Amino acid sequence: MSDMNTKDFMIGTLIGAIVGACTALLLAPKSGKELREDISEGAQTAKLKTEEFTSDAKEKGSEWATLAKEKSSELAKTVQEQSNQLYERVKEATASIRKTAEKAEKTADELAQELASDLDETKEQMKEDVKKDVDELQSVTTEKETNY
To answer: Cα(38)–Cα(119) distance, rounded to whole angstroms?
Structure first.
């Protein structure tokens, strides 16, 4: 609230000073010609100051626009570089995952082949064991029959 009061006070003071200066010029004991010259000089001075402020504002605006362009260009370049790096990382990770999946697939195929060959070997072994058992059983049975 005190900022508002200070601001209002400063604006009031400035307006009062301008009104007072104008009043002093108009009420000063000068001839009309002198008064018109003073007013003309004041207008010229105000015009020159306005032109200076305008030119300074244009210059500053141009500088800021150039600076903003440069910064946005740098930012765009940085973003593009980082996105390219990220793209490459994703590409490498995808390739790595594919290779790992292929290895896992090969490993699964190899494991299936090993199991199949183990089953074949076990099957053959079981056939041989059953055949032995049958042969032994026949020989035992044949011996018992001859003994009777």
So the answer is: 118
Q: How far is residue 100's CA from residue 88's CA, in Å, rounded to a whole number?
A: 18
Average pLDDT, the chain: 81
Which residues neighbour 28 within 8 Å (Cβ) at sequence distance 6 or greater?
Answer: 35
Query: Cβ-count burial of 38 within 10 angstroms (0-12 exposed, 13-18 middle, 19+ buried)?
Result: middle
pLDDT tens profile 24-52:
767 767 677 777 787 788 788 888 888 88
Question: Residue ranges of the domains in the chain?
Answer: 31-147
What does the H/E/C string look like for the chain? CHHHHHHHHHHHHHHHHHHHHHHHHHHCCCCHHHHHHHHHHHHHHHHHHHHHHHHHHHHHHHHHHHHHHHHHHHHHHHHHHHHHHHHHHHHHHHHHHHHHHHHHHHHHHHHHHHHHHHHHHHHHHHHHHHHHHHHHHHHHHHHHHHHC
d(CA 26, CA 18): 12
**CA pair distance 56, 28, nearest whole angstrom:** 35
